[in-house]
Amino acid sequence: MKTSAKLVLSSLISCLALAGCGSDSDETIAPIVDQCSARGQVENFYAYMQENYLWNEDMPTNVNPGNYNNIYDLLEALVVPEDRYSFILTEDEYQSRFVDAEYAGFGFSSRLTLDDRVFINYVYANSPAEIAGMKRSDELTHINGESVQTLIQQGRYQDALGGAETGVSVELTWQDVDGVSFTDVLTKEIVETNTVLATERFLIDGKEVGYYVLNSFINRTGDDLNSAYDQLVGVDELVIDLRYNGGGLTRYANQASTQAAGDTVIGEVFTKYLFNANNSDSNFIEQFQLYDGIEQLNLNRVYVLTTGASCSSSELIINSLDPFVDVIVVGQPTCGKPVGQIPELLCDKRAFVVNFETVNAIDEGRYYDGLAPNCSAEDILVGDWGDENDPMLQAAAYHMTYGQCQPTATSLSNKGSVKALNERQLDAKQRPTKLPDLWRQEH
After folding, report:
1. 401 pLDDT band (50/70/90 cuts)?
2. Cα torsion at 379, 334, 375, 110 (round to 10°)?
3. Cystine design at 303: which of 21, 142, 239, 357 (Cβ 3.0–4.6 Å)?
4. Coil, helix or strand at residue 217
């Protein structure tokens, strides 16, 4: 990627530094700005946006970087209205979440309902939460003996869960969908965030159906995908559950797609990456390839489960496979992110600024309103991953059996069902201010 504006600024500063050494001129030289001072970061970031931001020609022209004390505020001033995606992390946050794939916590993700109840979306493997027996669809009812609803209404819920530090112990009470209650003291540890949350095989209408839940695309995803596909060799159909996957490294979207479709797509165009006019010589085409992958299923049809939290690299799987195999999307419209970021290191921070867009082999992209499902279904908590009452899995199974979508939604008898419609969760259409999407709900 070009960073000519930044290089010009750097060269200018270097020239000024040289001019200040051994010069016979009486002309006063302006003090040199430390590149990693607040002012230096603001100036460098402004130059970077001018050169590399995908919508650089549409940025506001009345923004004076001298009026900003940090790059977070400057980013908010510069982004165009359609940009819900650009954000900045500290280097420590970047390393922890994308590289090390770990954080200090109990190891579960939750959702809040409109009546101030908390339910478990998923649990990480080998985490304190999993060891204690917590699972998807359980309801968290008490923290240190106090009602969760009361804590939320009094604004004390997050504090009650304790800080993001290892060694913090909290007594949690939860109940499963049958109303059976459990209480245990959980102590926060470093949680490794496995990106494949579940892998199952089902028999549907005489067919072997593979199913796996892919939660993110980070450095460990390649190995996690291999583990999943190893368990799915020989299946007739495949369901990839991306309902909470907010995106990440595109190469693993490629790997997941290639391992699913195999020889049908290998060597074909996976995605075309298109940069702004300043950087058009950086445009390139990525082919379908296995990357870290080993097993491939060679399927000509793939089912994908989505919600409004399915974003970016999740959408790439759908859009990139679509010209070559039958992709049946089940669930709700995706978040709508046909663009991407190459993180830029700025001193102790990483700027995830949108600097390219993606289109598939037949130049389809720009799905800012999301990718619509072929068959609609709601994300309702009815049990753990792979539960036969899951409406999204039921909708996929119905399509496999009858070749069409369900005429009406299947009624659920489980009184513990909880819809994912939730005004308290981060809206997929809302700009994240620091950490990406659903990580905000992990504890």
Report:
1. very high
2. -10
3. 239
4. strand
